[in-house]
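Posting this for the archive.
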Amino acid sequence: VQLVESGGGSVQPGGSLGLSCTASGFTFEDSDMGWYRQAPGNECELVSTISIDGSTYYTESVKGRFTISRDNAKNTVYLQMNSLKSEDTALYYCATTLWVGSEEYNYWGQGTQVTVS
């Protein structure tokens, strides 16, 4: 299983960035996907998820500003971030959970840095 994020960078407050996460090694279309973030000194936070049927979840602080989407043909999940704030600065991770029987396996990408300043 491999998750590779891209698209991070530096942007001024109010700007936009788009993150991508390309997956391999598992059946992407059968897996829920999520974006997490961790800022220095803070705990890891769930930002958004998208299920296999396309239903989405957003943490309250990003609702109306971030949009998660997926392209099963490309094995890729996206996070479009608009109206960025300084508090969005963090290392952003793509993640998924795979099940083998009753055993749960969590997988993470290497992360991509987003800096808003």
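The first strand starts at residue 2 and ends at 6. The mean pLDDT is 97.
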